[in-house]
Amino acid sequence: MIEEEWRARDYFAEMYVAGVLADAGWDIYFPRRDKGFDMIVSKGSPSGIALHPVQVKGKYCTDGKTDKARYGYVGTLTALHDEMILALPFFASSDAAAPRHIAWMPRSTIKISSRGHACEPACFKSGEPKPRRDFKQYFDEAGLQRLAIP
After folding, report:
1. Which domain holds residue 37?
2. What is the pLDDT at residue 35?
C-alpha cells in the first residue's frame, strides 16, 4: 500500500476503536490537535470514573506474512501516560472491513525497545493474528471490561 492508503487505514482504525468504545457506553473526547493521544475516554460507575488517554495503532498484515511468535506494535509512541491505553486493532489482511481482535493494552504492558517502544500481545499463525496466552485478558470484550475499573 502507498503511504496515503496506510494513513486512511490508520484513521479507519481510530474511528473503529471509537465506535466500539461508544457502543460500550464510553464518552469519547477528540483532541483539537493530535499530539500523541487519538482520544480521551471516560466512563462512570458506582465506584468512580475511569479516564484513559488512548493511542490507536492498527496492525494490518500483508499477503505472504509469515508466522510470528510475537506480534503487535514496535515503534515510537509520541506520548505516554500512566493511565493510557494502547488500542491495537488486529486486521487479518490489509483490506479487511473489521479487525479480528482489539487488544486494550495498559501502560504497564508497553516496554522500552531498541526501536522506541514495544507491545506485542499477539502472535501470527496461519494467516491470522491471535492473542498470546498471557495477554488474553486484554483482548476484545474481556479487555474492554477491564478498562472500566477505575
Report:
1. 3-147
2. 81
